[in-house]
Every structure is written in C-alpha cells, then in structure tokens.
Amino acid sequence: MENMDETLLKKARELFDEPDVIIDLFDMTFIWVSQHILDISGYSEDEMLGKQVMEFFSGFNIENNETLKRLMKTSHGKMNILAVGKDSKDIKINAEFYTIQHDDGYFHIGKI
After folding, report:
1. 8-59: per-residue pLDDT in tens?
2. Domain ranges, ordered by start, for the chain
3. Residue 101 and residue 108: Cα distance in Å, rounded?
4. Considering the entire predicted model, what is its pTM?
5. Residue 111 has what pLDDT?
6. What pLDDT score does 44 carry?
7. From CA 77, how far away is CA 99, in angstroms rounded?
8. Sheet bearing 90-102, strands edge to edge
9. How far apart are CA 22 and CA 30, in angstroms?
10. Rounded Cα distance, 49 and 33, in Å
11. Stretch (H or E) spanning 32
12. Which CATH homologous superfamily contains domain 6-111?
C-alpha cells in the first residue's frame, strides 16, 4: 500500500524476515499483503488492501466466533484457517502471527 507507514513494515520484518500480511485490528482490514499471498489467493493487491479479513475466510464471522475473537487479542500464536481464493477454491493456511502496537493502533503481523 503506497501510504502505509514504513516503520510498521520495518517492525513486521523484525518479527518475520518475510511477513505475509499486516492487518489493522481496529477495523480488521488488510493494510499490507505480500506477493506470496497474492500468488496463492489469486487476488490482486487492489482487491485485498482495505478489505476486511472476513471477506476472505470461509465460515468465519467475527461477531459470533469466540475463538477468533480470543486469537485477535493474543500477542503471539498459531492457527489453521480456511481461506477462499479468487477462484472460490478453499485454501488451507497454517499461520503464525504477532499482535503489536504501533502509534495509536494494534496490528496483526502474519506469516504463512
């Protein structure tokens, strides 16, 4: 994303050499995605950036999923999730993530 804070990306790269996603936890939107994510999902950067994470996951609804709510409040963890690619095929993802604070916000930094 052109206007993304470069210091946030630097922090992400301190956690993972090659992070795959940065998610803004305020509104659960993708603010940065790696080429790896674009390749496996079939989506373009424009199709993902600024979109809510739940648009890309099968069967998840943040309002009624207590497990997902707990994970979003965890500082570090691993999870298995089912994403939906652009071609509507399910993509099984094993992800590791960290939650960090940056400026006035909280962000998930993820690696698959």
Report:
1. 999 999 999 999 999 998 888 999 999 999 999 999 999 999 999 888 876 5
2. 6-111
3. 9
4. 0.85
5. 96
6. 96
7. 9
8. 29-33, 21-24, 105-111, 90-102, 76-84
9. 6
10. 7
11. strand 29-33
12. PAS domain (3.30.450.20)
